[in-house]
Write a structure and sequence with these properties.
two-stranded antiparallel ribbon, globular, 198 residues, 4% strand, single chain
Length: 198
């Protein structure tokens, strides 16, 4: 019970901190020119601020649903490490692959990475129902990509959603989960051989 209470408290603190950070959008969002000028922190902080209150609310609701879907099986340290790594990968990929993209902000790309990663890892490790999470996230990003190619824009209020971040996030989350599983599978086989050799 204590563990569940701690995780609920962590979620509440996270939401509060994100709410406070919204006042510093200009200093924190992923801005290409500012990053190139040396403001490297924006590679991570750009995922923590949002264009407007609708954008913020939508991402917070999604984050809470995702967190409570996975929270009984996720250690906080693993979640923080994944968030740190995926945020950097998504930001760098956006800057490299889309040279016309001047700025980015929002949690959604990172959420796509986390859902893909934890869905695949948990489906492989314990509960096959988590395959549904992986399928849903990939169907979503592929539909978004097809719609974007057809000229449709995804909107949150009057803001265009940068759906490329969703695709990049799902890609990095999925690939990282495959590497994780291959590493642990190899490690367990090695340990098994050592035990059998004794």
């Amino acid at each position: 019970m204590g563990s569940a209470r701690d995780k609920v408290l962590c979620a509440a603190v996270f939401v509060y901190c994100l709410w406070v950070l919204q006042s510093y959008l200009g200093a924190l969002e992923l801005d290409r020119q500012q990053v190139l000028s040396g403001e490297i922190w924006r590679i991570w902080t750009g995922h923590l601020v949002h264009t407007n209150s609708s954008h913020f609310a939508l991402n917070i609701v999604a984050a809470i649903i995702i967190y409570f879907t996975f929270f009984t099986r996720i250690k906080l340290g693993e979640l923080l490490l994944c968030g740190f790594v995926f945020a950097a990968l998504i930001s760098v990929a956006l800057l490299r692959l889309y040279p016309s993209l001047g700025w980015y902000n929002g949690l959604s790309g990172l959420l796509h990475a986390l859902v893909a990663y934890f869905s695949l890892r948990l489906a492989r490790d314990e509960d096959k129902m988590f395959w549904a999470g992986l399928v849903i996230i990939w169907v979503k990003v592929l539909v978004e990509a097809i719609r974007a190619q057809s000229g449709y824009e995804s909107l949150v209020g009057d803001m265009t959603v940068i759906t490329e971040a969703h695709l990049i996030g799902a890609f990095f989350g999925t690939v990282t989960a495959f590497f994780y599983m291959a590493y642990w599978r190899g490690k367990h086989k090695s340990e098994r051989r050592q035990i059998e050799a004794q």
